[in-house]
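Session log. Operator J.P. requested a structure for one protein chain; no other inputs attached. Running the standard single-chain path with token output.
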Amino acid sequence: MLDRLPWRKPARQTAGVLLPASDTALQAVRLRCRQMVAKRALLSAGASALPIMGVDIAVDIHLLSRLIEDINAAFGLTPQQIEKLQPKLRIATYSTIVGRSTLVGRVVTRELLLKILTRSGVKVVSKNATRLVPIAGQMVSAAIGFSAFRAIGNKHIEACVQVAEQMLKMQDAGK
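Structure written below.
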């Protein structure tokens, strides 16, 4: 069902895109990805507001896995896109990625996402505890879910921007 949402189509179209070619293109991709994060964070907040325990975690994992894949694709940083780079740039991209993030340029697994979500364990516990208070608790739970999801997504975007900026510098130095 979530694959039919309107913002899934652009990510599939950008699957063949390589690294952004300029700072302007990089900033445009950053803005587009931030909008994508905000939309999906709203869906996450909606799931967090449901009074059923566990549904929000399942929805968050699904939404986050798709979001990370879409962000990587938009920046040209999926494993398939990196493999299409020139050998020198490919090696440099992987070495830049190593120090930045656990999600840039990787295939996203549910186990990896569970690690990330458990790192924000205080938010998960407080989100579940607030659900026990009718209405106000659900609103607080939705707010916590929205902010946690948005923080994870925006952090990933910034990691991708740092890697792409480094690659732009390397491309410029090679010319």
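Operator note: The first helix runs from residue 8 to 13.
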